[in-house]
């Protein structure tokens, strides 16, 4: 191989390496994390499906999960349809305080902008 052929093949090899580290490797990691999460499902866990449905896990079979979407309403889903496991929020009052603070900040901004006009 002379330098001309190596010079034309090198950018192609670099492109493949960049695609591997930027696209393929992170996607594999996300898939492994999703499978780990789906295999760790247990009854009583609050979950959100990939379609945005919030439910509670009732039972877990081999590849199926039975979810309770409302009291007495149970549906069967495949584990792959579970998008994430929800963690309970410990301090709901903090969220309300943040909303009040941001509303107060917005009104302060409006007052200062009207004073400039």
Mind describing the biggest β-sheet?
Answer: 5 strands, antiparallel
Query: In the residues, how many domains can be counted?
Result: 1
Relative strand content: 15-25%
Distance between the termini: 73 Å
**Dominant shape:** rod-shaped
The radius of gyration over CA amounts to 25 Å
Explain what the structure shows:
This protein has 117 residues and is an alpha+beta fold. The chain has a single domain, classed as Roll (SH3 type barrels). It has two helices and five strands; from the N terminus they run H-E-E-E-E-E-H. A five-stranded antiparallel β-sheet has the order 4-3-2-1-5, covered by helices on one side. A hairpin with a 2-residue loop joins strand 3 and strand 4. The longest helix is centred in the first third of the chain and has 37 residues. It is rod-shaped, with a radius of gyration of 25 Å. It starts with a helix and ends with a helix. The model has no long low-confidence stretch (mean pLDDT 81).
Tags for this entry?
alpha+beta; SH3 type barrels; single chain
Write the layout of secondary structure elements.
Blueprint: H1 3-39, E1 46-49, E2 54-60, E3 64-70, E4 73-78, E5 82-85, H2 92-116
Antiparallel strand pairs: 1-2, 1-5, 2-3, 3-4
What's the short version?
The protein is an alpha+beta fold and 117 residues long.
